[in-house]
Amino acid sequence: MRIHSVAEITGYLRELLEADDLLADIWVSGEVSSLSQSAAGHLYFTLKDGNSQLRCVLFNRARLPITIENGMAVVAHGRISIYEATGALQLYVDTVQPEGMGLLYLEFERLKAKLEGEGLFAPERKREIPIFPRRIGIATSPDGAVLHDIINIITRRYPLAELVLCPTPVQGEGAVPGIVRAFDSLNTVDDIDVVILARGGGSMEDLQAFNQEAVARAVCGSRAPVISGVGHETDFTIADFVADLRAPTPSAAAELAVPSRDELMAQLAAFGRGLSSMLSGMLDRLRQQVDDTANRTASHLDSVVGKYKERLLMQELALDSLNPLATLGRGYALVQHAGNGEVVSSIAQVERGDAIDIKVSDGQFGGRVSGAKKGLQAWMQGFPSNKR
Questions:
Q1: Structural domain includes residue 110
Q2: Is the CB of residue 237 less than 8 Å from the CB of residue 210?
Q3: What is the dihedral sign for C-alpha 130, 131, 133, 139?
């Protein structure tokens, strides 16, 4: 016979209790009593009814949606285990709600508080929905009006988008694993720009698949941003809080996923008119600039041409003054040897009897040298005298 220690027994009992599925996820109703708070902020209290009582501890008071007091009838959620140091059986509480709420609502609030505490609802986690999606994933039932409405709306509004359907049950036992599989499949498809998760309206029981943790984490783990369109406008599910964008209905989800072709055409037309008006104004300004430039250029050219004309005139006058014909016109003559055309500029170049050609202003004539005289005095004898 083996003798066991107290630690072995309490440890064994703890393992048994924590391995039990019922005790690991349980709701317990009762009246609050013996409520106390530790210096660290932990709450200790007892839940009791007419016959029994159960010790409870809650380590994170900030997660409580209500303030509990002694005598309050509540429903607490948590797990049953043993505190080995004292051997006490107790409920480790994670949330408390007033008694009288339905179990589905209690589960909804519990999961909502848990996921919100993990940051799954945080605005900074939300991703932008692309304006012009090329490929849209759809996770919904292949039967019924929801899928047809989504297809019709997207086809009418933005026919350029390609639709990829991952069919799944959206109600009943197969809904949760089906939705998870649909997201797993869409995550393997390349270039999915946005995913629509959709279901028509129904009761809280009908929408229960969308309030399950597995579905919430599948939505959170989607590679592409997710638009949830579950139920009617007044219906809210956990999937709505986790999704990147919540639509009030499946049809609204389809509208939010794509732009409107008609609106795009109207915007393009408006842009075209604005561009035409802008270009027309620019062209008018450019034309005026061209005219101004042309006028300035013409004025400048006139000035430059005038200056060049004046310079040319001065050069022409200077050339005229050097023109031998002008000299001839004043009574001078050009004398050349008749044989070789050599210009005679000195009497040393000729002898008596040499044939010469004499050019004057209006022609030339020939002659022969009869004699020659040297000196300036002899040259000046040919000019009229100024003496009277």
A1: no
A2: yes
A3: positive
In this structure, what CATH number is given to the domain that contains residue 10?
Answer: 2.40.50.140
Total Cβ atoms within 10 A of residue 297: 10
Q: What was the pLDDT predicted at 388?
A: 43
Identify the three-state secondary structure at position 306: helix
- The token pair that represents 107 in the structure block: 């589960």
Report the 10 Å Cβ neighbour count for 52.
8
- Give pLDDT, residue 386: 52
Tokens of 8: 């072995």
Neighbouring residues of 221: CB distance < 8 A, sequence distance ≥ 6: 183, 187
The pLDDT value recorded for residue 168 is 95
226-230 and 245-246 beta bridge pairing: parallel
Residues 307 and 139: their CA atoms lie apart, in Å, by 86
Supply the CATH number for residue 242's domain: 3.40.50.10550
Instruction: List the 334-337 sheet strands across, edge first.
Output: 334-337, 355-360, 363-368
Q: How many domains does the chain have?
A: 4
Per-10-residue mean pLDDT of the chain, 388 residues long, equals 88 89 89 88 89 89 76 88 90 84 78 91 94 95 92 94 95 94 95 95 86 96 96 88 95 94 86 87 86 87 87 81 67 80 81 82 82 61 52
In this structure, the answer to whether residues 127 and 250 fall within a common structural domain is: yes
Residues 276 and 184 in one domain: no
How many Å separate Cα 266 from the centre of its chain?
A: 22
Range of the domain at 291: 270-322
Q: Are residues 22 and 135 in the same domain?
A: no
